[in-house]
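queue> pop job 88
queue> type: inverse folding (structure -> sequence)
queue> payload:
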C-alpha cells in the first residue's frame, strides 16, 4: 500500500552520488553522538509538547481569573499549539540558513520570554500575544530542529529513535500536569508561568547539543539507504529525468543552476580575498573594514544558498507539492491533530460536568493518555522497524484506532469507561513518532526539514482551530458531544485521502506505460 519516493518516481535533487559507496561512514550515524541527539530531542518534547499538553490546568485558571467564555479562553492554548507548528515552513528557512543548533538556541530564549511575560498580563487578550504568539514561535524554532536532527543521525533505527525521542511528549504531559497543578496551588498561576519560563531556558542547552553533520556524512547516509541495486537503478534514472514546464525542459536535480550559483559565490569571495591580500600594506583600519566586508560576503552567500534550497523545495520545478501522496499527507494533517488536542484541553471540564473530579484527582485522565502515549510511541516504533512490517500500514492502523476512540468518547460517562478510551487514545496516538519517518521516506533526508515543516504547519492549523471550535460548540449546545463527533468525521476524511492517493499513484504509471507502448 505504501510507496517510497523511489517507487513514486519523484526526485527532489539529492546531490549525493548513488553509485558510490562510503569508505569510512561516520560512526555517529546510528550510534555515538546520535544518542545524545535523541536525548536532546527527548528533553525538547518534555519542555515544549509536554507543557502544551498540560495547558488544561492553566486554561481553568484563566477561566476563573478573566471570566471570559470558554471559546475565547481556549484560543490562548490553541494559538500556542498552533503557531508552534504553523511556523514550520518558515523555520525550515532558518534551518537552511543558520542550521539547527542556532535556530534552536534562539527559539529557547524566545519561548522562555513568552512564558515570563505572560505572568504579568492583565487580560486574556494580552495572553494571545505573549503566550500564544511569542512562546509559540519560540517553541516552533526548537521543535522542528529537534525532529530533523534525529532524522539526520539515524538510518537503520529511525522509527525507534523517533519513538524514543518523542516519548518526551508523554513524559512531559504527565510531569508538567503535576508540576503546573502544584505550582498553581502553591504560588498561583502567574508565578507558575514565571517559574516555567525559567525552566524553559534549558531549551538553549538542548539546542547546543545539536551538533551538525557535515554534508559528506549526510550524502553517505543517503548512499546507505540506497544500497539496494533496484533502488540504485531507479534513483539513477530519476536523477536524469527532466521536467517539462511552460515549454522549457529543466533538469530535475538542478545541478547546473547550483554550479553557476556556487561559481558566482566563489568569485565574490575570491575578489574580497584578493582585495584583502593586496591591502595588507594599508592601515589597520582598512584591514578591519575588509574583514567586515569578507564576513558580510560569506554571510550573504550562506543566506542565498539557504533561501535557494528553501525556495526550490516549495516553488521550484521539483517542488514537494508535485508529490501527490505528500499532498494527501498534508490534507490528512489538516484534520488529524485537533482530534488529539481537544481531549487534553477540554477533558478537565468534561470530568467536572460528569461529577468525576474525585476520581480524576487521584489519577487524571490526561495523565493516562500521557503515560500510555509513551509506550505507544516506543512499541509502534519497534514494530515499524521490523523488516516484514510496513511503516505505512502501522501508521494507518493507528489512525483508524484513534478516530474510533474520538467518536466513542462522548458515549462514556463513567470514569472507568473514559479511562479505557483515554488509554486507547494515548497508545494509538503513538503514530506521531512515525510521521517524520513516513515524511523522510516520501521526500528524502535533504528535504526533510522543509517537508516536515509543511506537515506540522498543517497540524498547527488543526490545533489552532480545534479547541476553540469545541468550546464554541459547547457555548451553543452546552455539550462537548458534537465537538468530538465533528472532529472525528473530519479526521476520517483525512484518512480516506491517505487511502485513495496511493491507489491513484499506482494506476498512473501503468496508464503512462500503456500510452508509450501504443505510441
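queue> result:
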Amino acid at each position: 500500500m505504501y510507496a517510497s519516493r523511489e517507487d513514486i518516481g519523484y526526485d527532489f535533487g539529492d546531490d549525493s552520488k548513488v553509485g558510490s559507496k562510503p569508505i569510512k561512514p561516520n560512526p555517529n550515524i546510528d550510534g555515538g553522538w546520535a544518542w545524545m541527539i535523541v536525548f536532546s530531542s527527548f528533553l525538547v518534547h518534555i519542555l515544549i509538547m509536554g507543557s502544551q499538553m498540560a495547558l488544561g490546568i492553566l486554561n481553568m485558571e484563566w477561566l476563573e481569573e478573566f471570566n471570559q467564555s470558554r471559546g475565547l479562553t481556549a484560543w490562548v492554548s490553541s494559538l500556542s499549539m498552533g503557531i508552534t507548528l504553523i511556523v514550520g515552513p518558515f523555520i525550515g528557512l532558518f534551518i537552511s540558513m543558520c542550521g539547527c543548533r542556532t535556530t534552536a538556541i534562539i527559539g529557547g530564549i524566545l519561548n522562555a520570554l513568552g512564558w515570563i511575560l505572560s505572568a504579568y498580563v492583565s487580560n486574556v487578550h494580552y495572553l494571545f500575544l505573549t503566550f500564544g504568539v511569542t512562546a509559540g514561535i519560540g517553541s516552533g524554532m526548537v521543535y522542528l530542529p529537534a525532529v530533523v536532527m534525529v532524522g539526520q543521525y539515524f538510518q537503520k533505527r529511525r522509527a525507534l529513535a523517533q519513538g524514543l525521542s518523542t516519548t518526551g511528549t508523554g513524559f512531559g504531559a504527565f510531569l508538567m500536569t503535576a508540576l503546573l497543578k502544584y505550582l498553581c496551588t502553591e504560588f498561583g498561576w502567574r508565578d507558575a508561568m514565571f517559574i516555567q519560563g525559567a525552566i524553559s531556558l534549558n531549551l538553549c542547552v538542548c539546542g547546543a547539543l545539536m551538533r551538525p553533520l557535515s554534508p559528506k556524512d549526510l550524502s553517505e547516509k543517503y548512499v546507505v539507504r540506497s544500497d539496494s541495486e533496484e533502488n540504485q537503478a531507479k534513483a539513477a534514472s530519476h536523477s536524469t529525468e527532466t521536467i517539462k514546464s511552460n515549454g522549457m525542459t529543466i533538469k530535475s536535480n538542478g545541478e547546473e543552476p547550483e554550479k553557476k550559483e556556487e561559481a558566482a559565490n566563489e568569485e565574490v569571495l575570491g575578489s574580497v580575498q584578493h582585495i584583502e591580500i593586496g591591502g595588507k600594506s594599508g592601515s589597520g583600519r582598512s584591514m578591519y573594514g575588509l574583514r567586515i566586508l569578507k564576513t558580510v560576503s560569506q554571510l550573504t552567500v550562506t543566506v542565498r544558498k539557504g533561501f535557494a534550497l528553501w525556495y526550490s523545495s516549495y516553488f521550484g520545478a521539483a517542488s514537494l507539492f508535485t508529490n501527490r501522496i505528500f499532498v494527501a499527507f498534508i490534507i490528512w494533517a489538516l484534520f488529524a491533530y485537533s482530534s488529539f488536542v481537544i481531549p487534553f484541553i477540554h477533558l478537565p471540564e468534561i470530568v467536572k460536568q460528569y461529577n468525576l473530579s474525585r476520581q480524576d484527582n487521584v489519577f487524571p485522565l490526561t495523565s493516562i493518555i500521557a503515560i500510555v502515549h509513551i509506550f505507544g510511541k516506543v512499541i509502534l516504533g519497534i514494530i515499524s522497524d521490523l523488516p516484514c512490517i510496513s511503516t505505512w500500514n502501522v501508521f494507518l492502523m493507528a489512525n483508524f484506532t484513534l478516530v474510533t476512540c474520538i467518536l466513542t468518547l462522548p458515549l462514556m460517562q463513567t470514569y472507568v469507561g473514559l479511562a479505557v478510551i483515554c488509554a486507547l487514545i494515548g497508545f494509538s496516538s503513538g503514530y506521531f513518532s512515525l510521521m517524520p519517518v513516513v515524511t523522510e521516506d516520501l521526500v528524502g533526508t535533504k528535504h526533510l526539514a522543509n517537508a516536515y515543516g509543511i506537515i506540522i504547519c498543517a497540524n498547527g492549523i488543526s490545533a489552532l482551530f480545534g479547541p476553540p471550535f469545541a468550546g464554541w460548540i459547547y457555548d451553543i449546545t452546552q455539550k462537548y458531544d458534537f465537538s468530538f463527533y465533528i472532529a472525528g468525521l473530519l479526521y476520517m476524511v483525512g484518512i480516506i485521502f491517505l487511502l485513495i492517493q496511493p491507489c491513484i499513484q499506482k494506476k498512473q504509471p501503468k496508464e503512462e506505460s500503456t500510452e508509450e507502448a501504443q505510441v
